[in-house]
Amino acid sequence: MNTRRRSKPLVTLALALVALLTLAGAAAASGPQQTEQAAPPPASGDSNRGFSFNFHYEYVSGSALRPRDSSSGWDYSGTGCVSRSSGSELFNINLSLPEGSRIDYLRIYYYDTSGSNDSRAWITTYNASGGYSDITTVTSTGSGGYGTRLSSYLGHIVDNASNSYVLNWNANQNGSGMRLCGLRVAYRTPTQDLFLPLIAKG
Amino acid sequence: MTDVLGDDADEDGYTGAVNTAAAVLEPSEVAASQPAEASADALALQPDDNGYRGPVDRAAQADIAPSEMQPAEAPDWEQFFAEPQPDQDSYANPLGLDDRSPDDWSSFRYLNVAGATLRPRDSSSGWDYSGTGCVSRSSGSELINIHLPIPDGSRIDYLRIYYYDSSSSDSRAWVTNYNSSGGYTDVTTVTSSGSSGYGTQLSAYPATSSIPRRDPMCSTGARPRTAAACGCADCVSPTGCPSDAHDAET
């Protein structure tokens, strides 16, 4: 008898739990899942939360870069392009971007008629923990003259307190057959998510 | 020379007539070597174009061909920051807040420039790349400088130099502004110190730290051959700032 009396409340409690779980499942099914189904397919706009919708660009003419040491010479090749005339040093220029921005891509604009060499550009950080880090790179390609190429996606957050950012370019050969005409950094600036207070009626 | 604000078309408050160029002015070069017209494929939206909706591979990049070989002796700047420094927000006794409302200024923002991006002020001097972002002067006696782009109305609080100095003499860096009247002002300065190699030093808090609203520039420079400027970091607290020319010199 005692056993029967004790089991009644337990059964009631179990039934209540099952009912609650069922209701919660139904509510979940009618809420967020519908929203997810309505969402657009994965594309470039995803994973950009917290950053500007549009790209910002830092576009540097190749002719603004200079060799890292004075042992190398350079030529102006016309229309904003530069080529290395002597020596073997890389070319560089300071890259100044807003704190907290996200660097997504590096694009190179080049003139390349070399059948044996491609030029290469980097974004390099010289950091507070020693040494340096090449955070992305892109090369020219082919030998058909003017062209442009895009790096892989990067997604690097700018930290000006700890890093200096530099655009580097290596011609890999001397002469006007290999020119740097421009480097363009595509980045997104940080935004703040704003949430309105919840107002419930009744 | 006295300049009156608002009497020129590029100044706030100007109410006079604005001349509009009828055509492109004297070209900077003969456009004989323009690139060929881009093909339709080249005009298609790319992943770095606004409006692109195609797939994006966000996977980590493969190994990157290095821009240089890592040196055996790399600087360890962090060893110099065992405690919060005056140019860090975590510093316990910040300067510059007594005379101005702290609400008017932001936390620190930094302009961090690799020494390797500075160049001599004239071509009589040569320069060397010393590795890991550092530069040294190889010949001549000229200062090395770079433009310092600071937002209009910002307040410059500190200049920090990162250096390699194995010389008995020290190098010196400045933030200098040049005005359009032929004069200049060294806003702040800091020197390297000692002769034991890599190090960093912070300037004093400047007496006048706001950027003048007309005509500035800044500079950073390394004097002795054995001293290399590895970088300069300017701390600015902007809420809005001046739009003149600034340089950093060594």
Which features characterize this protein?
heterodimer, A: 202 residues, alpha+beta, 5-stranded antiparallel sheet, 12 strands, disordered N terminus, B: 250 residues, mainly beta, 4-stranded antiparallel sheet, 1 helix, 2% helix
Tell me about this structure.
The complex is a heterodimer of chains A (202) and B (250). With 202 residues, chain A is an alpha+beta fold. Helix content of chain A is 18%, strand content 39%. In chain A, a hairpin with a 4-residue loop joins strand 7 (120-127) and strand 8. The longest helix of chain B has 4 residues, at 40-43. Chain B has one helix at residues 40-43, and strands at residues 109-114, 119-120, 126-131, 134-139, 144-147, 155-165, 172-178, 184-191, 197-202, 227-237, 246-249. Chain B is mainly beta and 250 residues long. Chain B contains one helix and eleven strands. At the A-B interface, strand 5, strand 6, strand 7, strand 8 and strand 9 of A face strand 1, strand 2, strand 3, strand 4 and strand 10 of B.
